[in-house]
Amino acid sequence: MQTEITAALELLDSKGCLRTEGWARRPYWRYERGAIRASALRIKEWDYYSILSHEGRYGITLTASDLGYAGLYALCFLDFDRGYSHQADTLRVLPLGRAGFGPDSDQGRLRYADKALSLDFEYKPGLRILSFSAPDMRAANGKLGLEGRIALEQPPALESMNIATSWAENRRAFYYNRKINCMPASGSFSIGGDIYTFSPAKDFGALDWGRGRWTYENRWYWASASGYLGGKAFGFNLGYGFSDRSPASENALVYEGRIHKLEDIAFHIDTADYMKPWRFSSSDGRLEMDFKPLVDRQSSTTLGPIRSQQHQVFGEFSGSARLDDGQELKLERFLGFAEDVYNRW
């Protein structure tokens, strides 16, 4: 059974535990950092965007995060025809809640700048404006310099996948997350002198907004895609392995702005070679897809007790997905990504 939340409520009680766990079509939980019963070193806050062009065969991702002991900021350029990616990133030591991450996923402004990169996320009603630059970002042709500005439209009727769950071994540890698929994208960026443009008639952006207190060691699986399917806006969010998901999963299809909830999902991966084909299946039989990898955005970090291994693989999904009313959708080379991430920190 999955618990759907349908009205506004406080996220945490006086003991720092989730009041009600479950999922929602809107961000009904009210997050307050000061209500978390944990050291600032354990609190995690992040905003992550991906904007991919199906026709143009390129994309960009933007990451801003306060992980307590460090702040991580990153930009990544993706060229799918060449199987190429390049990332500019930087670390800020011990931000401890001073990075400016707000409590509301629909309003506020987040800015960061140093010699490596700059990020400016501005949220207005129905609109997210992302400005960014990285002087040493390298295109596939070797030329340097990234700069851009992208606007993502967020129609009021667009539903999102929201979830609040805790860990069985520590109920004060929690994961509050909002995933928004299918936000029409406009604007452009340049890298190495070449200009890459997004059109709202063809391209979408997606957001991963999260706040929480995590346990020390975790491994999660996540996949996301947004695009047009038969002229209709379609996307999906799939994920598991992170926190106790018995109250709800974060697995959902998004079709014409509406969430169609799925049950459990399994990722079938050859972890010896992430560039081999993947497969996805659902416990309710409503989703069966193959995945052809194009680019593996991977990283590995070991620093004392801290360890992180990440494979965010961009590629093409092909298969079928069934909506709540039984309508079956067919996908063929639908651009998106899937990841397998292990963290110990």
Overview of the structural elements:
A hairpin with a 4-residue loop joins strand 8 and strand 9. The model has no long low-confidence stretch (mean pLDDT 96). The strands form 3 sheets. Strands 2, 4, 5, 6, 7, 8, 9, 10, 11, 12, 13, 14 and 15 form a 13-stranded antiparallel β-sheet that branches. Helix content is 0%, strand content 63%. The chain has strands at 9-10, 22-24, 29-30, 43-53, 58-66, 70-79, 84-93, 108-113, 118-124, 127-138, 144-153, 161-167, 170-191, 194-198, 204-213, 217-229, 232-240, 252-255, 258-261, 265-268, 278-282, 287-303, 306-322, 328-344. It has one domain (9-344). It has 345 residues and is mainly beta. It is built from no helices and 24 strands. The protein starts with 8 loop residues before the first strand and ends with a strand.
Helix content, binned percent: under 10%
Element pattern in H and E? EEEEEEEEEEEEEEEEEEEEEEEE
* Low-pLDDT sequence parts: none
- What structural class is derived from the secondary structure elements? mainly beta
DSSP, total strands: 24
How many helices?
0
Strand content: over 45%
Shape: globular
Largest sheet: 13 strands, antiparallel
Number of domains: 1
From the N-terminal CA to the C-terminal CA, the straight-line distance is 32 Å
Radius of gyration: 19 Å
Mean pLDDT value: 96
In short, what is this structure?
The protein is mostly beta strands and 345 residues long. The protein has no helices and 24 strands. 0% of the residues lie in helices and 63% in strands.
Topology, element by element:
Elements lengths: L8 E2 L11 E3 L4 E2 L12 E11 L4 E9 L3 E10 L4 E10 L14 E6 L4 E7 L2 E12 L5 E10 L7 E7 L2 E22 L2 E5 L5 E10 L3 E13 L2 E9 L11 E4 L2 E4 L3 E4 L9 E5 L4 E17 L2 E17 L5 E17 L1
Parallel strand pairs: 1-3
Antiparallel strand pairs: 2-12, 4-5, 4-15, 5-6, 6-7, 8-9, 9-10, 10-11, 11-13, 12-13, 13-14, 13-15, 16-17, 16-24, 17-18, 18-19, 20-21, 21-22, 22-23, 23-24
